[in-house]
Amino acid sequence: MAVTSGPVSLASFLAGTGVAVTFALTYATAVSDYSRYLPSDASGRAVFWWTAAGVFLSSTFCCVIGVLLAAKFAAADVFQSASAALGGGALAAVVLVVTALGLAVTNMLNLYGGMLNLITGLSTFVKIPNSFRTRAAMMLPTLVIGLGLAVTASRDFTGNLTAFLSFLLLLLIPWGAVNLVDFYLVQHGEYDVPGMYVRSGKYWSDPATWTHNGVNLKVLIAFLIGVVSGIPAMSNAWYVGPVARQFSVVYLALVRVGRHPQEESFTAVAHRHRTSPL
Q: HEC states along 91-148?
């Protein structure tokens, strides 16, 4: 299939790469879903690489298909592009219905993950009964908030989704860094799992790690510093940080080196490019 091509700016490339990385990193918060039902003697290395390969291959495949559809049909809606690629008709309808069902399954997993996270957080402070009613109730906040955000963002869904993923990446990178450092360099893979569910021991109160009432302040401080340090370099449809603005000016200045003066002033060009390329 022949595709069209055009100039690609560094900002657009980095923004697209960030979206792709965020798509893969979102699975990092659900790693227990891949391991909780495995035998206790399962190889940790095998679990890691099979999980990483599955996430990388699936996300990369989706990104490649999306790029090809956008380059060939130049439609803002991926469903419109897919329909055009399949020539419309019954085949396109079947493919789109199957795709929609796949998205529904993914959203069910998101509700399940949100329920687990909410129960985990609340169980640190109060006793949560283990029942179907409890799990169903804990899914409702994620359902209501997610549905509300989707409806609100529907007018410019692609732009709002890209901006949201940018903020999500800002949270996931320091979270992942702290998580990996704790696992490999601090704890060396050794955790007292039963101790995580009792109001005693080092996971509940430990002056060495500044842990009080189940809250590890050193972890939270490291995470917040990571988030705050990344805000100035953000650039999306909702917010452009001061560092990102300077990067755009520097890039435009370098582009101008060796070129003939244009009728449009440099100030006007810099001002126009301060917004997100997406």
A: HHHHHHHHHHHHHHHHHHHHHHHHHHHHHHHHHCCCCCCCCHHHHHHHHHHHHHHHHH
pLDDT in tens, 249-270: 555 565 566 555 544 443 444 4
Hey, is 211 helix, strand or coil?
Answer: strand
Q: What is the pLDDT of residue 33?
A: 63
Give CA–CA dist 71/216, Å, rounded: 47
User: What value, to the nearest 5°, has the Cα angle with vertex 194 and ends 189 and 200?
Assistant: 110
DSSP tag of 240: B
**DSSP 8-state code for residue 246:** H
pTM of the model: 0.62
Nearest to 99 by CA among 109, 91, 111, 89: 91
CB proximity list for 264: less than 8 A, separation 6 or greater: none
Query: Residues 174-228: pLDDT tens digits?
Result: 888 888 888 888 888 888 888 887 888 888 888 888 888 888 898 899 999 988 8
Rounded to whole angstroms, the Cα distance separating 47 from 60 reads 20
